[in-house]
Write a structure and sequence with these properties.
The complex is a heterodimer of chains A (115) and B (112). Chain A is globular and about 45 Å long. Helices cover 0% and strands 56% of the residues of chain A. By secondary structure, chain A is mostly beta strands. The model of chain A has no long low-confidence stretch (mean pLDDT 92). Chain A has strands spanning 4-7, 10-13, 19-25, 31-38, 42-51, 54-57, 65-70, 73-78, 87-94, 105-106, 110-114. In chain A, strands 2, 4, 5, 6, 9, 10 and 11 form a seven-stranded mixed β-sheet that branches. By secondary structure, chain B is mainly β. In chain B, the strands form three sheets. In chain B, strands 2, 5, 6, 10, 11 and 12 form a six-stranded mixed β-sheet that branches. Chain B has a four-stranded antiparallel β-sheet with strand order 3-9-8-7, with no helix packed on it. In chain B, strand 7 (56-58) and strand 8 (64-68) form a beta hairpin. Chain B starts with a strand and ends with a strand. The chains are: A mainly beta (115), B mainly beta (112). Chain A binds chain B through residues 4, 31, 40-45, 48, 50, 90, 92, 99-101, 103-109, and chain B through 9, 32, 34, 36, 41-46, 49, 51, 90, 94, 97-100, 102-105.
Chain lengths: 115, 112
């Protein structure tokens, strides 16, 4: 079984709809992240969470919200989807160790299309 | 602010040829550097990382990268490319607390 899973893998929705993307991990990591990937822009951080009670905005959080339901689950919501939120969304996790930074492990991605 | 530049958006190499993917970073102190690979329809997988020590880093799948502080570079190399190496490659730098910046990626095409 994959260590980081994302559901759904593909989603088509309409402008104005609320949508939730879910991420689950079995790695036991404290830290979780949401990124979006756009062609020519690489990956950009939307939100990150260091533990269940610690959630932080990334560089492009407008239009998104998150919920850390448990150590293993981190959901991303689009309250009112718009077409420019069409992208590939990745969840990632990392350990909470002494290093300032630890490598991240990525899920397979969710391809979201907003019509 | 930290940044990463991958100057080559798309590279084509022949199978068996050598490969070098360029990465330049900007960060005021010693950075944490990474190369990830993304195969079609897949998430990102870590190829290798540099934190400190030996500036030549070995990774998985026969890849290596060299950290050159004087050039602010962390180029990825492979002596002989296989068709299965066709993918998109991302360089990333982590400098501030938990802040990771990814490059825009380099798509590698491998021709027979």
């Amino acid at each position: 079984d994959a260590d980081v899973t994302q559901t759904p893998r593909n989603r088509i929705t309409k402008t104005g709809k609320r949508i939730m993307l879910e991420c689950s991990q079995t790695k036991g990591h404290d830290r979780m992240y949401w990124y979006r990937q756009d062609p020519g822009l690489g990956l950009r951080l939307i939100y990150y969470s260091f533990d269940v009670k610690d959630i932080n905005k990334g560089e492009i959080s407008d239009g998104y919200s998150v919920s850390r339901q448990a150590q293993a689950k981190f959901s991303l919501s689009l309250e009112s989807a718009i077409p420019n939120q069409t992208a590939l969304y990745f969840c990632a996790t990392s350990e909470n160790r002494d290093r300032v930074y630890n490598e991240q492990f990525f899920g397979p991605g969710t391809r979201l299309t907003v019509l | 602010a930290q940044s990463v530049t991958q100057p080559d958006i798309h590279i084509t190499v022949s199978e068996g040829a050598s490969l070098e993917l360029r990465c330049n970073y900007s960060y005021g102190a010693t950075p944490y550097l990474f190369w990830y690979v993304q195969s079609p329809g897949q998430g990102l997988q870590l190829l290798l990382k540099y934190f400190s020590g030996d500036t030549l880093v070995q990774g998985i799948k026969g890849f290596e990268a060299e950290f050159k502080r004087s050039q602010s570079s962390f180029n990825l190399r492979k002596p002989s490319v296989h068709w299965s190496d066709a993918a998109e490659y991302f360089c990333a730098v982590a400098g501030g607390y938990q802040k990771v910046t990814f490059g825009i990626g380099t798509k590698l095409q491998v021709i027979p």
